[in-house]
């Protein structure tokens, strides 16, 4: 049986998840969506065939979307998540799985805004979901059983890999994979800049760096691959790559990345407190 899924706030992230479901064969007729404006609702419906309404123009749009839904995906900005949860609470079935893709909003905050016993799942997706290559951390709430987690996992299955973790680790997941695409883009940017400094045309340097980072990512997707083993395979003794890695180690690149991830984790924890 196909789940009925409601997407509340269908921006980039929720839009990528919705499109992934459609690409995997989920029928458009079992999906509903709300957007901020009428223009965006019309554009989404025209592109995907999914019925959409504008919550910014129709006060009943969110209630319409969640009525009878098996899964509700909350995708508005974090500051509005708790209020949205309170708004839709009367329309939820007791077994409707409420899934949040909002950063920094804790399970406790969500559960406090919803009826007692409502199955809640908190997730941390990343932007490569937009190209079907995402990584998603998932934490279950106190009333979310294995069936609820399975329903939540199925929402993302067409767009990326899903990893269940305790909520205490979700900020670390955010630091590694949530923010991680920016680290990869930063690396590609730095590689291109270095190529330009060595005399390459910028357009060529950018293309070489982008293709290399993307290709390395494909190699990392292979079953049972160890990143360190792949690095060693490219690093011939006394070769050019070994010289480059030695400079990175001397400059503390590995330590800088770890410190950056710690700073990202600390900020996520701070935001959770601020938004509670």
Automatic annotation (TrEMBL):
Its EC number is 1.5.1.2. It is found in: Cytoplasm. One of its GO terms (molecular function) is pyrroline-5-carboxylate reductase activity. NADPH binds at residue 62. InterPro entries: 6-PGluconate_DH-like_C_sf, NAD(P)-bd_dom_sf, P5C_Rdtase_cat_N, P5CR-like_CS, P5CR_dimer, Pyrroline-COOH_reductase. It holds the Pfam family P5CR_dimer. GO terms for cellular component: cytoplasm. It catalyses: L-proline + NADP(+) = (S)-1-pyrroline-5-carboxylate + NADPH + 2 H(+); L-proline + NAD(+) = (S)-1-pyrroline-5-carboxylate + NADH + 2 H(+). Its main location: cytoplasm. The keyword Oxidoreductase applies. The keyword Amino-acid biosynthesis applies. HAMAP family: P5C_reductase. This is Pyrroline-5-carboxylate reductase. It comes from Galactobacter valiniphilus.
